[in-house]
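Many introductory courses stop at the sequence. We go one step further.
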Amino acid sequence: MADNDNIVRIQTNFTAGEFDPLLRARIDLEQYRAAAKELTNVVCLPQGGVTRRPGLQYIDTIPSAANPQNGVRLQSFEFSTTQQYVFLFVSNRLYIYKLGELVTNINGSGNDYLDLSSTGISSTNLSKLYFAQSADTMIICQEDMNPVTITRGGSHSTWTVSNLTFEYIPKYAFTISITPGTSFASHTDLTPSGIDETIRLTNKPTNGIFSQPESFYLDQYININPYGRVRIVKKVSNDELEGFVEIPLASDNDIARADWEFESGYENA
């Protein structure tokens, strides 16, 4: 081949888009022959070509009272195929747009925004929010706040914001404490009403060893030797606790004071 000969390669499409610079030498990839070194302000067409990216449409100006300079966050919300919204989050406020128009008089309050001041959503964590939608409800999570739900009501301007409630919050003993049964009143045995599921543990003889407020015992544990573990769910009296058996007991015989312990320190994780 002569030195002045040129090699001409014909590229028919750009459907692979813009290639990462680290892939520019990967001529072995099939996508290599359908990629570009740089594509700016264009959209790749499925037919192979490119077209200029369309411009943006002016929708609204964020009110200065919302302090948009401190941060904003956009999130889509699709109630149905014909009712679609864009949520505009700012610090302590949510503006709602339906098909490009601001929804006004939210909940008949006269405000053009939903008040989020009680949720913990602020300019400091807007970038850290995680979203999930279930039917008419948006669930918002962030590690430093209680999960929040935003629910659409019977109209475009009816919305409810509340903290997500849980049937059971996981517990963790950040500072665990073990109190042997022998540390309680003398001659203290426990009588279980069963060996599994929900049972009651009754102090025998009755001498009021469970005299602390109920909150002191809830979601703490009674451990039993040789095996058995009961999570306390209720204080029945100063002599009786109700609990859920997480490890079945060996038997329903009386448990000697040397064979059980109170494990505490568990709090909301």
